[in-house]
Amino acid sequence: MADCPMLNGCPFFNDKMKNMPATSEIYKRNYCRGDNSNCARFMVREALGPAHVPDDLFPNQRERAEALVKE
Question: For the chain, what are the domain ranges?
Fold first, then answer.
């Protein structure tokens, strides 16, 4: 899999988010350097645009992302 095209500006990937989980390196491997289509941040960005991605949304919060997209 290719790296996510949003890596350079992604607050999660660049450790700019508050309360980074201890598992963040695993998330980066699975979502940022793996199948980014499952990344909650990527999903919201693609559906609604970058301004609609909550600052505190983590890549593994798919259910939250789906709810945001449905709003």
Answer: 22-70
Q: How far apart are CA 40 and CA 37, in angstroms?
A: 8
**Considering the entire predicted model, what is its pTM?**
0.89
Rg (CA), the chain: 11
pLDDT in tens, 16-36: 999 898 999 999 999 999 889
Q: What whole-number distance in Å separates Cα of residue 3 and Cα of residue 63? A: 23
Residue 27's CB is within 10 A of a number of other CB atoms, namely 18
Element containing residue 43 per DSSP (H, E): helix 40-48
- Contact criterion met (CB below 8 Å) for 35 and 1: yes
